[in-house]
Amino acid sequence: MLREILIHLSENRLARKVSMSAPGARTVARRFVAGESLDDGVVATRELNRNGLTVTLDYLGESVSSRGEATAAADTYIAALERIAGDGLDANVSLKLTQMGQDIDTAFLRENVGRVLDRARDLDIFVRFDMESSEYTQRTIDFFRSLWDEGYRNIGIVLQSYLYRCADDARMAIELGARVRLCKGAYQEPESVAYQDKADVDGNFVRVMQMLIPDAHYPAIATHDEAMLEATRKHVEATGTPHDSFEFQMLYGVRRDFQNQLRDAGYKVRVYVPFGEAWYPYLMRRMAERPANLMFIVNALVAESPLRFLRRRRKDGWRSS
Fold first, then answer.
1. Which residues contact 29 (CB under 8 A, 6 or more apart)?
2. Is residue 156 a contact partner of residue 129, using CB atoms and an 8 Å limit?
């Protein structure tokens, strides 16, 4: 129930407006979002690289309705690609097609994304298409396939194990030789297209992971679930899969202990680093995914609240009259 409420709030404009103006909200968001500017994303990337972790940069935003916004998003990605190359960062980028004009016009989407892909190809940088809600799954895969058929090979997709179709899409990607990021999924989906029980989502995650490793081309296993991490490690060892033939992916600010443990065990770990002003829906979905994230945010909000002075003074023995 809590997950459904948080996902609903992530899509509610009034809740977004109120939350983004709340005292301390941006400070709290900085745990999971590098900042609002590309410079912030670069600083976070450089620090992660120093710690032996690679990065995928994500400029936050989705469901863009104007050509100007979509064009500006593409421009930001091109700037990010040039910073990655110019600063010698170990990073690539992830983007959402609805941010690039998917709901505006297919020809415009192709032109806008094409500018990013061409620059990425020039700089030899990989671009991942994030997967959004099931409403966009087939459209995203169709768009990906059309670009693949045009000869682009610096692209990859995301598959979500809560969708029934996940295994079929994984087989398609394996046949193409395309790179896949496997995750569980972070949207509220109907029973007609998605598993509703965590056990079923987890079971499908493991089945698809075992398809991707070792048969897919450099798959990314994206999870913070300790059971899913352990299942992957056991499968890797059982199949004798080299540690450099795939990577784990985790979100910025989430389970940094796991990130370091996997790195120290010799696995490749990539951190998804978001930046930008549209941080509210992203933050809400992170809370929906993991209760511990919610508790961190609640504690941080209390710490930022004026009420903290009242708590502190009472703790020191002060009583109001």
1. 279, 280, 283
2. yes
The catalytically annotated residue of 119, 128, 130, 202 is: 130
- Identify whether the C-beta of residue 125 lies closer than 8 Å to the C-beta of residue 136: no
CB 212 within 8 A of CB 219: yes
Given a contact cutoff of 8 angstroms between Cβ atoms, the answer to whether 258 and 224 are in contact is yes
Partners of 221 in beta bridges: 182, 248
Contact 205, 178 (CB under 8 A): no
Collapsing DSSP to helix, strand or coil, 275 comes out as strand
Question: For the ranges 4-18, 71-85, 92-106, which has the lowest average pLDDT?
Answer: 4-18
60 vs 281: CA distance, rounded Å: 9
Based on the residue annotation, tell me whether 3 is a catalytic residue of this protein.
no
Confidence at residue 9, expressed as pLDDT on a 0 to 100 scale: 45
- Secondary element (H or E) of residue 294: helix 291-304
Dist. CA 284–CA 204, nearest whole Å: 25
- The residue whose two tokens read 């710690």 is 51
Q: Look up residue 69 and give its two tokens.
A: 């916004």
23 burial type by CB count under 10 A (0-12 exposed, 13-18 middle, 19+ buried): exposed
Amino acid at 99: Q
pLDDT, residue 187, reads 86
Catalytic residue status for 130: yes
* CA–CA distance, 306 with 304 (Å, rounded to integer): 7
Residue 304 reports pLDDT greater than 70: no
Catalytic residue among 119, 128, 179, 181: 181
Read off φ and ψ for residue 190, nearest 5 degrees.
-75, 160
The 10s digit of each residue's pLDDT in 222-270 is: 999 999 999 999 999 999 999 999 999 999 988 999 999 999 999 999 9
